[in-house]
């Protein structure tokens, strides 16, 4: 990332005021005119490192819009469902998996293991009879076992791209994929949904 512009007209706390220029991002240029800037703790390099491109551009353009951007992200984080008690490895989940019928238990164990592999920051707990995975206290996926199928569910599934149309459910946020013994499953598409659900929740922490 490279920032080009006219010489800084003024400095305050390490931040510039009154500079006009161009942000060059991956060979694409975004014109900006700095009206005012927030305090030093929101310096552009920090935003760039955190991957908040929208925040970076708003920062370089207008303080009011940037503060609105932060407020929206804060609201989204506050609105997320949160569970207390998640740990790195919950023995209750292994006990629950061992208690499931052989075929369904194998499905549940396979896909929860895949969820665990998303990252070192994945925590877990049993919630409402399901093995649930979280980042900190925010859940992103779960595995549940029913009479004839297992569900791999996503707490913000309604916001996931699903080109293979695996997701089921009509709620405001949650979606799930039904997995039945002996039925063909697009494992690659389900794996992509798991990764996307993890990254979605993780990005909310970065933006917030």
In short:
With 208 residues, the chain is α+β, with helices and mostly antiparallel strands.
Describe this structure in words.
- This protein is of the alpha+beta class.
- The protein has two domains: 2-79, no CATH class; 91-207, Aspartate Aminotransferase, domain 1, CATH 3.90.1150.200.
- It has six helices and ten strands.
- The chain has helices at residues 44-49, 53-61, 63-79, 91-98, 102-116, 187-207, and strands at 2-5, 10-12, 15-17, 20-25, 28-33, 122-127, 130-135, 138-145, 150-154, 175-179.
- The strands form three sheets. A five-stranded antiparallel beta sheet has the order 6-7-8-9-10, with helices on one face. The protein has a three-stranded antiparallel beta sheet with strand order 1-4-5, covered by helices on one side.
- A hairpin with a 2-residue loop joins strand 4 and strand 5.
- Helix 2 (53-61) packs antiparallel against helix 3.
- The longest helix is centred in the last third of the chain and has 21 residues, at 187-207.
- It is globular.
- The chain starts with a strand and ends with a helix.
Shape: globular
At CATH level 3, the topology of the largest domain is Aspartate Aminotransferase, domain 1
State the domain count.
2
- What is the helix tally? 6
Strand content: 25-35%
Largest sheet features: 5 strands, antiparallel
What's the CATH first level of the largest domain? Answer: Alpha Beta
Number of strands: 10
Helix/strand/pairing category: alpha+beta
Q: What is the radius of gyration?
A: 22 Å
Strand order of the largest sheet: 6-7-8-9-10
Q: How many angstroms separate the termini? A: 22 Å
Low-confidence stretches: 1-51
Order of secondary-structure elements: EEEEEHHHHHEEEEEH
């Amino acid at each position: 990332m490279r920032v080009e512009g006219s010489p800084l007209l003024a400095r305050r706390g390490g931040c510039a005021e009154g500079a006009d220029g161009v942000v060059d991002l991956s060979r694409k240029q975004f014109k900006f005119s700095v009206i005012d800037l927030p305090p030093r703790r929101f310096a552009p390099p920090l935003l760039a490192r955190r991957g908040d491109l929208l925040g970076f551009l708003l920062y370089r353009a207008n303080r009011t819009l940037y503060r609105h951007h932060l407020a929206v992200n804060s609201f989204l984080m506050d609105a997320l469902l949160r569970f207390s008690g998640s740990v790195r490895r919950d023995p209750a989940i292994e006990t629950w998996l061992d208690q499931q019928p052989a075929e369904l238990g194998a499905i549940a164990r396979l896909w929860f293991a895949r969820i665990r592999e998303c990252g070192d920051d994945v925590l877990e707990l049993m919630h409402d009879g399901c093995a649930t995975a979280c980042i900190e206290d925010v859940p992103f996926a779960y595995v549940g076992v029913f009479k004839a199928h297992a569900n791999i569910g996503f707490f913000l599934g309604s916001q996931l791209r699903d080109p293979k149309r695996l997701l089921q459910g009509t709620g405001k946020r949650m979606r799930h994929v039904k997995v039945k013994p002996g039925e063909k499953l697009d494992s690659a598409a389900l794996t992509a949904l798991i990764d996307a659900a993890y990254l979605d929740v993780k990005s909310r922490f970065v933006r917030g």
